[in-house]
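Q: Structure for this?
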Amino acid sequence: MELRLYNTLTRQKELLTPIHPGEVRMYHCGPTVYQRPHIGNYRAFLFADLLRRVLELAGYQVLQVMNLTDVGHLVDDAEEGDDKLEAQARRDQLDPWQIVERVSAAFFADMEALAVKPAHVYPRATDHIVEMVAMVERLLEQGHAYRVGDNVYFDVHSFPNYGKLSGNRIEELEAGARLEINSEKKHPADFALWKSDAKHLMKWDTVFGPDGFPGWHIECSAMARKYLGDHFDIHTGGEDNVFPHHECEIAQSESVLEGPFVNLWMHTKFLQVDGGKMGKSLGNAYTLDDLSKRGFSPLDYRFLMMRGSYRNPLNFTWQALQGATEARRNLNDFRSRLAAEAGVTLVDLDSLHVDSAVNRTRLAFQAALSDDLNTSEALAALFVLRNSFIHGKLAAAEYSAALALLAEADDVFGFLDPVIAGGLTDAAIEQLLVARTEARAAKDFARADAIREELSAAHITLEDTADGLKWYRG
RNA sequence: GGCGACGUGGCCGAAUGGCUCAGGCACGUGAUUGCAAAUCACGUUAACCCGGUUCGAUUCCGGGCGUCGCCUCCA
């Protein structure tokens, strides 16, 4: 299974050829842990999870790193020295470190609820000050950076390729509407590697002075290098990261390394809400709790995210989420109905007859994912299989294989409900069904419904079909 | 001012220079029913606007309008 992935750097789909055969190493820009991430943030993290799962499906061994930014990024102008973490700390009258712990815990709980496979490392910026300082020192030695007092800046003119990721040109950045006035920088486009401010709460005593903290971009360069090596395969983030964050990472890292840094850059488009932007001030920066208040599970949201392309904006509406919920339920039911009839045969999907319906679905599924993670089309393939089952066009002999394929698909999508083990025995169920039939015959519908509720609570679904009563687990 | 993206039926959305625009949801009619739920059958609805290229454009090019991202931390 070969993968073709869209590279922001080259603006085209490229065949993935890992640096180390059989192994893919990747880095994802994670959350800034000053506030619980909203569903828009999770779009990017769900993408990272999807990518990892597809890579694993394709047989690669994956090393996945997602950072937690737990040190302040400046909110206003550099002079204010105010960062999001510290501002939040002031609002909550908490220590910034406490905020970090609280939000990180919420983040990991959300990720688990979303069925995200944990990355192999979640490094925190504040645990890697030493690595960052070393990198900044090296840039100074190389002449890529310069000091002004206790601050250190990267000299963008020292890196000829500055702008290659975003398409920005240094001259245009300078001519931009948002001029930096009164800066100590040599050039407005130069960016901070290390800053100092005695008023900062999170600060470190280093060779650059007693009150320093890292610049906005150096943390990812330093941590990626530590855990993934100098040159690795994939780096992802939201579209907002392209510039300046990833552009600056490239400048720093390729300067220090004097060689390549990342082969493939991938970026997710933003989630929109009701056709417009999402924002706290707009009141539509929903969290998973907001969804659950309306009766939706995190997996419903996960499913919704898989229905569109990560490279296109996705419009979140409650109606769309409702639609995703119903669709997900139908796929769950499909699995249950197959399970009720398939028996327990184990199927090796690799040995299916090439022309079998399940094998054709599998090929379509994999081909879609291989083409820059076309989840929409991959999902459609599963529904086509479901349709042929419903229309009686899927041979009973293929039920076990179909079930196995659904399991494989769910290894990638991860949105099906966990399979319930145990519960009522068949005999107990049959007994309840007899009681329900009697109640119905006696027009005691309240009792009949009560029995159905009881079965439903035990994850048994009933169908009064023309052929009689059917039931299945799920 | 500069860089980039998007605009498909009631909703969410793929693919695509012509062959039915996938799939899902919703909706309508019917079957089965307890004028319930679930299930099943059948069915309806499109491409922001204006030019251009082309035998032919939703798909390519240009312009307009709208939306989104970046140039300030941000998925």
